[in-house]
């Protein structure tokens, strides 16, 4: 999907937010803002995806500050906290049958996408998140193509699973375990080659033990979402040979919608709708969860 | 005061906000955003006041959309609602002695600056505002130079009163009445010559009957706050011949601080601190009220 006019102020705001995470030097923040303004005034923003706009800003921030991973400590904290929650989640589903457990894990994975550990005032409360997690067992996403997805899973030998943020990767791991136990399929999980925002890299995957249960590859770059023109041959090959794409998060949604005619296979998007632009595109309210299957 | 880095994303956000108020045409919004990005990338934003940045955007919006007063309906609504509240306020102070009434009116005037009728979802509740208005009688501003101000009022023959937004002008009118009844002074009230944001113009002053109780002049232009290099001779003369300046709102604060060495007379600022940049400058939290006297 292409950016909307609202993406322009959002990108400038994100530039300052990232700048402040990457460095305490206000002069560098000003340079980052100026470079962002130049970039946004020079391109046709509405011909880009929102993910591309934010990717460029992320690169500007890393270049100007010399900080290769401004979200490093936030990501580690997210992973640690989510790992603690994982045992609560597995206890919750312990007495359910296999299929019900899988359904719960799908909901939990989408709910995980809503976790925001990196808000400015950092008032995340573990207890609240746990009680909300329990509620999510009883609530269906506002777009819920789970039954359709289960049929696709049954008929897929190879699945490519595009990960999104640190923290939620713990729930993705639990989901991947359930899927591979219930269906005869091979899952390849995809991380970013190098840091961009709080997206997971190989390091995060290792931290939560993902390589123990499935193959982990990277897109080959530091871009939000998917960019077939620049991503690695290994990633493109994994995408080409898969029967089904499962994609977490808005970044993967914003970019994969641009490649539907090339990918030509079912894509399942799992995410929390977090902004007006995506909300308008999806025709659902902001702060709602979706399990949305697209088929060619 | 000069802008901070936070003023840059704020100005871009404001550009889209104003664009959407001025026109339903998304292409025009994009042109406005691009012109804003160009402007911000071409100037040293941190050498400008925040008011100057927003003034430029306001002019871009009016030029691109051809809408000379994007906040016209909002201002009218603000004035109407505040006029209804005025009778509640006068009833509240009815039994107080003159000095106490004046003190309450000062607090009410500052509180009026906090009124925000123009939030996107417009969920302003008259009843809530009324009950909060009552509470403001018992609460002192976080910076409270009111006693110092009373001494200045006693010793001033001519006072220039710089108005800010529609709606709150109703409370300013009540305050001006109290001041002129208690002290032997002449007050000249200052509005904007032509529309900028929801700042009051001669039209708003007339709508609430301000010319019935004091002289009303304009700055001679459509800028937020005060700009002595471009404002009208009449305004500069009124400023020069006054003994005391009373200035409502952040815009007047942001710009008058730049002219203290020229003005060389006491300035009293009455406003709600609404953003981080001013909050840092004033060393008080956001969403707090101030009655702050500066003396040469």
Structure description:
The longest helix of chain A has 22 residues, at 72-93. Chain A has helices at residues 7-22, 26-42, 50-65, 72-93, 98-114, 126-136, 146-154, 168-182, 202-207, 233-240, 249-256, 260-263, 276-282; strands spanning 143-144, 158-162, 186-191, 215-218, 244-248, 267-272, 289-294. In chain A, helix 9 links the parallel strand 3 (186-191) and strand 4. Chain A folds into 2 domains: 7-65; 72-294, 3-Layer(aba) Sandwich (Rossmann fold). By secondary structure, chain A is α/β, with parallel strands linked by helices. In chain A, strands 1-7-6-5-2-3-4 form a 7-stranded mixed beta sheet, with helices on both faces. Chain A starts with 6 loop residues before the first helix and ends with a strand. Mean pLDDT of chain A is 92; it is low at 118-124. Chains A and B meet through helix 1 and helix 2 of A and helix 1 and helix 2 of B.
List the helices and strands and how they pair.
The structure is a homodimer of 296-residue chains.
Chain A lengths: L6 H16 L3 H17 L7 H16 L6 H22 L4 H17 L11 H11 L6 E2 L1 H9 L3 E5 L5 H15 L3 E6 L10 H6 L7 E4 L14 H8 L3 E5 H8 L3 H4 L3 E6 L3 H7 L6 E6 L2
Parallel strand pairs in A: 1-7, 2-3, 2-5, 3-4, 5-6
Antiparallel strand pairs in A: 6-7
Helix pairs in contact in A: 1-2, 1-3, 2-3, 4-6, 4-8, 5-8
CATH fold assignment of the largest domain in chain A: Rossmann fold
Q: How would you name the CATH homologous superfamily of the largest domain in chain A?
A: Uncharacterised protein PF01937, DUF89, domain 3
**Major pleated sheet of chain A:** 7 strands, mixed
Shape call of chain A? globular
- Secondary structure tally, helices of chain A: 13
Uncertain stretches of 5 or more adjacent residues of chain A? 118-124
- Beta percentage of chain A is 5-15%
What count of structural domains of chain A?
2
Instruction: For the record, give the distance between the C-alpha atoms at the N and C termini of chain A, rounded to a whole number.
Output: 16 Å
- Could you name the CATH class of the largest domain in chain A? Alpha Beta
């Amino acid at each position: 999907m292409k950016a909307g006019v609202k993406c322009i102020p959002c990108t400038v705001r994100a530039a300052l937010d990232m700048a402040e995470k990457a460095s305490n030097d206000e002069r560098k923040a000003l340079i980052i803002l100026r470079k962002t303004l130049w970039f946004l005034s020079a391109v046709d923003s509405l011909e880009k995806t929102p993910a591309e706009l934010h990717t460029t800003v992320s690169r500007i921030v890393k270049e100007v500050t010399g900080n290769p991973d401004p979200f490093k400590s936030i990501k580690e904290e997210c992973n640690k906290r989510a790992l603690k929650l994982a045992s609560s989640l597995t206890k919750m589903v312990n007495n359910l049958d296999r299929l019900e457990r899988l359904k719960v894990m799908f909901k939990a994975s989408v709910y995980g996408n809503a976790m925001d550990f990196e808000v400015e005032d950092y008032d995340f409360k573990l207890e609240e998140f746990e009680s909300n997690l329990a509620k999510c067992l009883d609530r269906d996403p506002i777009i819920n193509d789970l039954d359709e997805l289960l049929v696709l899973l049954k008929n897929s030998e190879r699945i490519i699973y595009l990960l999104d943020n640190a923290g939620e990767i713990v729930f993705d791991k639990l989901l991947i375990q359930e899927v591979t136990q219930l269906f005869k399929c091979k899952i390849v999980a995809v991380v970013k080659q190098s840091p961009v925002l709080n997206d997971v890299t190989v390091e995060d995957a290792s931290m939560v033990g993902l390589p123990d249960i499935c193959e982990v590859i990277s897109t080959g770059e530091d871009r939000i979402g998917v960019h077939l023109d620049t991503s690695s041959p290994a990633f493109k090959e994994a995408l080409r040979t898969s029967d089904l794409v499962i994609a977490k998060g808005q970044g993967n949604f914003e970019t994969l919608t641009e490649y539907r005619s090339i990918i030509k296979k079912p894509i399942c998007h799992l995410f929390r709708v977090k902004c007006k632009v995506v909300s308008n595109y999806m025709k659902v309210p902001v702060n709602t969860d979706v399990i949305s299957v697209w088929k060619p």
